[in-house]
Amino acid sequence: MKKFLSANEAVAHAAAQAGCVVASAYPGTPSTEILENIAKFKDTIKCEWAVNEKVAVETAVGASMAGARTLTAMKHVGLNVAMDPLMTFTYVGPLGGFVLVSADDPGMHSSQNEQDNRNLAKFARALLLEPADSQEAYDFTLKAFELSEKFSVPVIIRLTTRTSHSASLVELGDFKPAPHPLLPYVKDIRRNIPVPAFSPTQRLNAQKRTEAMEKESNRSKFNKVVKPAKGVKVSAKAKGLGIVTSAVAYQYVKEIFPDCQILKLGWTNPLPKALVAKFAKSVKKVLVVEELDPFLEDQIKAMGIKVVEHKTELNMLELNADRLQNLRHEILGDVGRAKARRQDTTLPTRPPVLCAGCGHRGVFHVLHKLGATVTGDIGCYTLGAFPPLNAMDSTICMGASIGNAAGMRKAGLKGRICAVLGDSTFFHSGITGILSALYNGTPVTTVVLDNRITAMTGHQDNPGTGKTLAGDPAPVTEIADIAKACGYKNVAKVSADDLAGLEKTLSTAMDSGEPWLVIAHAPCRIAAKLTKEGLCEVDPEKCKACGACFKMGCPAMTRGKEIRPGAFQMVIDPNQCAGCKQCGQVCKFGAIKRVR
Fold this sequence. Notes:
Radius of gyration: 27 Å
Strand content: 15-25%
Oligomer: single chain
Shape: globular
Number of helices: 20
Distance between the termini: 51 Å
């Protein structure tokens, strides 16, 4: 059986084929589609969106301890949130196979950093596999459950944006999804409770396990030497060069260095040192090509193997064939197969912008008008930092907005301070923030942009939507109820499309000297299918070309007739207008009306 699958889809299919029983994750690009595709196998896999990555890993740990094969997935920064349970679980060790998929984002296509989570895998003493394409994503995931049970170790599968979202033909074999039988659970506090009485033994076991895994990695078919194909002309310089590489970097190396020997590593932690040493002896020079940190290179150098130094930058941003072509020219002094200059196929950039009709826009317009210092968070609303809204001062990580605002206030920063985060982020890691601010008496105003969906990653459900990942009905958690239960006396709810109501509520809250929680609610227009709910038009007789409406930054607004130098009447694109009426509220001349 063959299917055309992305690596994310391939992981989901492999989980089903391997008999995964429980899957838990928090959505985050580029990992989101893994659980969305696992949900298609909900008859055999119990799958769920957890409120954050820490809870997702803890759920998977519990399932593994009960003897079930389990999978959890997250983007690279999500693993930061989950490191607390993971670091201890590496001492305890899985019973049922435990697989964690970390989808890294070299080049920061949709992330605030490009950390290389291979370092975290080594730090956690986890077994690390790095697929180079969709077929390997399938094969490696199948094997990962077996390896996890064999060595009683968490297995991390590291994908990247390029592998996660690139599709290729995958041989699925005899594809028959079915739950794997549970391994028998046995009460064992010496294994499952890492306290000082037991931890030293667990630590020693983890070390012995690492040594056993390294021996097997040297024999694994996931690590192999790839020689030049028959018919490829090999120069003297290329013949003496051996390249060590892994993951998607292998694809670029194979294209640009087809005449060199390649040691392709798929099992990269523990490093198969004996295999690397044997390969190094078979060539005159060793070059290491990897994406982001010198994870492999530093370990190979530590073995006493001399590695080719080069000036071509490989350890920042996403790799591509052009950068490898520059490396070839530097190392071998030729242009290889790419004799002609590559054509520039770069597409024009499309600056990210809040959708037409997005309720976040009104909140940021008002906060900017009120002169507030705004600590932001991770979500669509991060776009509130950019012109013309210019309404956000910081973004660190999910849930940090509230603590950041509290810290600013504690440090003595004067004026209005406001923390902003979305509803899904509030459930993820905002609740502890508002509780801490209230407990410490910090007069911080927190605004929850409640659009009732996890919008940025593609409209996934959360505790406020009333549905689970599998589409089943779920209790609707009200943010206001949580705030009141925490002890907040000042809780307000206002429409994000009501600019006057927002201004009155936010100014009152930020000037009160007390902790406030404001819920600015407006459904995501795309998720709620409200993109064609209405249509606004501009009366050209009334429009004075003052430019106030342009300051909203709505993509449905375009320039029309120039009525004086540099002053243009506004025209609303009927194909984009969502009828939110925010623009009409900022027009002092009544030139904008909703006509449908």
